[in-house]
């Protein structure tokens, strides 16, 4: 079974801190994604990567960056956390094949910025 | 630009009734895929069903079926004989035809099944 592991379930950080959210998958998936989930807004794509060292902006990349140095690990970085980045962050992975290949999600990291 | 619209923020349905959750989409890609996910209160995202834009038949998976109307750009999820355990948030999602295409989600519909 595919496992996508997010390093923290809950995280509390102060405004201005640099924050790292880590995501690791164990199924050799090519594609990895970071979403944030907010009530009434659904899941919004922040960044995704379809290969090591490759990254593509999603719909809301401002204030975030990502790193994919190894295939299994995709990190989301908040360079200077702000209160409007308080949210649930979901990491997901999938194979690079097209068609009905579903995303496999981690359990999420609930980040609070105070 | 691609877009997914789910117009029902919340729905209340009596147990054992059938449920239709609406999803419309917009894309200029000739080939694309549509997904439905379920998110129970535990927070996990569960993949339910997939429909390819060139699939001739509507997808079915157990009690779930996808009512795909390509000309109308709609991909509604139908749950037959609803159960209390179907109470959850439901998301419609879409991806394009290219390997580096992003996967976007709608805002979701919260379904409540009443006993």
Walkthrough of the structure:
The complex is a heterodimer of chains A (about 110) and B (about 120). Helices cover about 0% and strands about 50% of the residues of chain A. In chain A, strand 6 (about 40-50) and strand 7 form a beta hairpin. Chain A contains no helices and 12 strands. With about 110 residues, chain A is an all-beta fold. In chain B, strands 2, 5, 6, 10, 11 and 12 form a 6-stranded mixed β-sheet that branches. Chain B has a 4-stranded antiparallel β-sheet with strand order 3-9-8-7, with no helix packed on it. A two-stranded antiparallel sheet of chain B has the order 1-4. Chain B is globular, with a radius of gyration of 14 Å. Helix content of chain B is about 0%, strand content about 50%. The interface of A and B includes residues 41, 45, 50 and 100 of A.
Fill in the keyword field for this structure.
heterodimer; A: 114 residues; mainly beta; seven-stranded mixed beta sheet; three-stranded antiparallel beta sheet; 0% helix; 52% strand; globular; B: 115 residues; six-stranded mixed beta sheet; four-stranded antiparallel beta sheet
